[in-house]
Design brief:
With about 400 residues, the protein is of the alpha/beta class. It contains ten helices and 19 strands. The protein has two domains: about 110 residues, Urease, subunit C, domain 1; about 290 residues, Metal-dependent hydrolases (TIM Barrel).
Length: about 400
């Protein structure tokens, strides 16, 4: 058993009661009558966390009918919420289980300077998206670099340059500062106050309730992200970080985390020209806290672990790779009280692997979310089975016992 936080426990047991882990260790007493998953000879880990995906909001193979990832009718869309466009029957949720991914932070795209609110979900288990929510108070997506300036230059609107993109963000936060002050004054006086959804969201960022998920590839865009965060005092998380290695010392000194990737892509645009898997190891060696993303569907979400394997091949320590798939992304986005490791009090999201998950020959054989089996690999038939909608709330094993 590999809890990730703490040393591996050979022959250990994970006890799950009412969906939460209640005990982890070598000498855990198993209650009489408990259902047992025998994982002898297997590796048992927490479910992986995809910290930057578009599952359900950018559906595969559906064209415009399933593309709700960018509301590109204005460059500052802080008021929109990803949860309102997620289809939990998107095939990407099933793919997540194949790769041992049990939690996904679904984000709007990078077409706008400010894309909207994100949401953290379980990858399976609900009849509606609301029943899969871990937290709807996670972050706001923002983009610097090529994407927003390309989108709005084509519309002949601001922002058509990096200058304009930074201005849009700066103006939005300046307005949010004034809005927050006016709201406080109205509350003190007991006067009515007109709510603005976008400014309410940005005020939550200023208050530290929501992180600022900053899409940025080039090192100069990352520097702009840091400059803006300094001006307004919000909690910054760099997403993608293709050239983050060029200023790794700055990020490490400031303790600014990086959600790195996707790695299995070509260099389709200028800001990706320096893309290299080895940069993740460089960042980690410099002391930057890192996570890994597939940016699904850019890279299939079940390949999240394979990206980690390739990063290990290029110098990333295996323990850091596991942390980048679990506890790190959970911590960056305020989910560490629910997911990311095997510890008492956390959700019973557990994956039984045939071997070391960083070995490409290993596969997720059984996936439990909240202590309930939602996926099982049938070695005899060579087919994995996902518990479908009508079965999602049936009882399932509640103990993992290697």
């Amino acid at each position: 058993m590999v809890p990730v936080v703490g040393a591996p426990v050979p022959g250990g047991t994970v006890l799950i009661v009412d969906g939460r882990i209640t005990a982890v260790g070598a000498d855990v007493a198993v209650p009489e009558g408990a259902e047992v998953v025998d994982a002898t000879g297997r590796w048992v880990l927490p479910g992986f966390v995809e910290s930057h995906g578009h599952v359900g909001i950018w559906e595969e193979g559906e064209g415009v009918a399933g593309d709700d990832v960018n509301e590109m009718t204005g460059p500052a869309m802080a008021g929109v919420r990803a949860i309102d466009a997620i289809n939990i029957d998107d095939e990407g949720f099933r793919d997540a289980l194949l790769g041992g991914v049990t939690s996904i932070v679904v984000k709007p795209g990078s077409g706008n300077a400010i894309g909207g609110q994100t949401v953290a979900l379980k990858s399976w288990g609900g009849r509606t998206v609301d029943e899969q929510v871990i937290s709807d108070a996670v972050s706001v997506k923002s983009a610097l670099g090529e994407n927003p300036k390309r989108v709005y230059a084509e519309k002949k609107q601001t922002p058509s340059t990096r200058l304009g993109t930074a201005m849009v963000i700066r103006e939005a936060f300046t307005a949010a500062q004034h809005y927050r002050a006016a709201r406080a004054a109205a509350e003190q006086k007991g006067e009515p106050f007109a709510v603005d959804l976008a400014l309410e969201t940005l005020a939550r960022v200023l208050d530290g309730e929501l992180a600022w998920d900053q899409h940025a590839h080039r090192h100069d865009d990352i520097a702009t992200a840091i400059r803006l965060a300094d001006e307004f005092g919000y909690r910054l998380v760099i997403n993608h970080g293709t050239e983050a290695h060029k200023i790794a010392d700055v990020l490490a000194d400031r303790d600014i985390p990086v959600i790195f990737g996707p790695m299995l892509t070509n260099r389709a645009k200028v800001e990706l020209r320096d893309r290299d898997i080895s940069h993740l190891a460089t960042l980690a060696a410099a002391g930057v806290r890192v996570a890994i993303t597939t940016d699904h569907p850019v890279v299939p979400i079940n390949f999240l672990v394979h990206q980690a394997t390739l990063a290990v091949k290029e110098g990333l320590p295996p323990q850091t790779a596991l942390e980048a798939l679990t506890v790190n992304p959970a911590t960056f986005l305020g989910l560490e009280g629910r997911v990311g490791s095997l510890q008492p009090g956390l959700d019973g999201d557990v994956v039984v692997w045939s071997g070391d998950p960083l070995d490409v020959h290993s596969r997720a054989e059984q996936v439990l979310i909240g202590g309930r089996t939602v996926y099982r690999w049938d070695a005899a038939s060579g087919v994995g089975r996902v518990v479908e909608r009508a079965e999602r709330f049936r009882s399932a094993p509640d103990v993992v016992h290697p």
